[in-house]
Structure formats: structure tokens, C-alpha cells
Amino acid sequence: MVFIALLAAGVTACSATDTPAAGVAPAPSAGVDGPGAPSGPARPARASPTAPADPSTPVGPSAPAGPSAARPLAGKVVVIDPGHNGGNAAHPEIINRLVNVVTERKACDTTGTQTDAGYPEHAFTFSVATGLARLLRREGAKVILTRSNDHGVGPCITQRARIGNRAHADAAISVHADGGPPSGIGFQVLVPGLVPGYNNRIIRPSRRLGLGIRTAYHRITGEPYSTYAGQRGIEVRTDLGGLNLSTVPKVFIECGNMRNAADAARLTSPAFRQRIVKGLAAGLTAFLRAPG
Ligand code: ZN
Question: If you measure from the C-alpha of residue 7 to the centroid of ligand 1, how many angstroms do you get, rounded to a whole number?
């Protein structure tokens, strides 16, 4: 089934931790999320039982400018990149195409990993991303997703970065879950390492964004720092197209290890994903409201 094709594609782990790029993405603006209406086989968890999305809430350019107590993120633009996509496994000819991420050439996109029980990373990332988008919009932010459903292919990691750049995002985050060693547990935030001539200007703000997300995520979800990657929940990377090619502050997060039984149980739980959403929103909000 799906993951047979996945193996055929030669991509299993969240190696693609990486981000984005494009070929088959929906039309450039179609990839930009609409009112968040996923239609794929894996519906995202409902993000906020207590506060359903309000379709009347103004978003984007028409939103009132300037923050207020009720809309502290008014005027801010956030790009959320749900890693991978549900249709990737069936289209290795597309996602295995090599793209240039400056430090190397790598696959346009990958299938991502899954839990032992078969809960796929792409469904997880889409669930978290749509819940996060809903929450941030309620706070007044304009939110753009790099894919609008969980059954398409791609976009390529390069295109995912481009979406954040074109939006002039105040912050961008790529959401993933890892396919690490089964004995390893925990999350890590991936921040950009310097790729001279490319991402110089985003190194410092991205690190600040990463630290804010690391701290809030740890506090709100209770998830431990990764026991097998990074240091105290932070890892500097120069192999990810999404970070190398970004011109806006950006980080990745590996929310947990799907190959670890305890993490897998948490990541599969809609209630835990809601805590993830709250943790990420708190980290992003802290960064966006901090001066400078
Ligand atoms: Zn991934």
C-alpha cells in the first residue's frame, strides 16, 4: 500500500526533515491555505474544541492593522509548513527529483516517517499545522500554509521556502516528527546554520525564534528534549533547503520521535496535538511580540 510505494521511493525516515520545494504543488496561491479546509484522507484533529474557527474573523490584508489585547498578532504574517504530503509515496518520480539547496542536491520532497502502528508523519504535520493556523488567526495573524490538503504531492522543499519568502513572513515554521532510533525520545528545534551569501540575515532572529519555541513547547507539552539529536532541544543545520533558502526567520521542529513507542502514543493523540499547537503558538507569539 502506501508505504510499499514509499519504500520503493527509497525514502522512509523524516529524512526530509527538510522542507520544501515544488513541482506539483497546487497553483502558487492555491498552496496558500484557504480557510483551512483539508479534504484529504487524514483529517486534522480539531484544534480547539472551545473555540471553533470563526469564518467572520478577518484575515490578511483586510484585517485591522495594529495589535490589540484581543488580537495581539494583528499585522503579523506567519507561514506554516506541514512537512511532506499524503500523495508523495505514490509519486516517487516527482518527489525524488533532485533540487539544489545550496549545500547539496537532494530530493524535492520525501514521504516522511510513520509510527509502528501506521500513523503517518504527513497526517500528523497537517493536523498540527491546521490547528496552529486556526489559533494564530484568532490572535489576528495572517497565516499561510505551504500546502492546503493532505492528499497532494509536494511541494518541493525549495518551493516551501519560497512561499515564506514571498509572503515576507515575520516568522516561518516547518512542522515535522522524526523517524529516529526507537530507543530515542523527545523533540528538537532545528535552526539555520550559516550558509554564506544565502541566509546570513536570518541566523540571529531564527535562533531567537527557535529558542522561544523550544522553551514554550517544552513547558506546555512536557515533551523532553531529544535524547539522540541536538543539545537541549536545539540543533543547528545547514543541510535543509527550508533553512538555507529562507530569507525570513525560520525554524523546523521535530515534535517527537514517531519510532519511539511513548512518543508515538503522544503524537497519535488528538489531545496531545492540541497541546503541541498551544506550545508552538506560545513560542511564535513570544517571538512576534518581542521588540527588535
Ligand atoms: Zn519530516
Answer: 15
Ligand 1 centroid–CA 18 distance in Å is: 7
Residues with CB under 5 A from ligand 1 (ion): 14, 17, 83, 112, 176
How many angstroms separate the alpha carbon of residue 56 from the centre of ligand 1?
Answer: 33
Looking at the annotation, which residues are catalytic?
Answer: 254
Phi, psi of 98 (to 5 degrees): -85, 140
Rounded CA separation 20/161 (Å): 6
Is the torsion defined by CA of 24, 27, 29, 35 positive or negative? negative
Q: Which domains does the chain carry? A: 3-37+71-289 (3.40.630.40)
pLDDT tens per residue, the chain (292 residues)?
Answer: 334 344 444 334 464 444 333 333 333 333 333 333 333 344 444 444 444 444 444 444 554 567 888 899 999 999 999 999 999 999 999 999 999 999 999 999 999 999 999 999 999 999 999 999 999 999 999 999 999 999 999 999 999 999 999 999 999 999 999 999 999 999 999 999 999 999 999 999 999 999 999 999 999 999 999 999 999 999 999 999 999 999 999 999 999 999 999 999 999 999 999 999 999 999 999 999 985 5
User: Can you tell me whether residue 170 is helix, strand or coil?
Assistant: coil
Distance (angstroms) between ligand 1 centre and the Cα of 211 equals 20
Q: State how far the Cα of 52 lies from the Cα of 129, in Å rounded to an integer.
A: 16
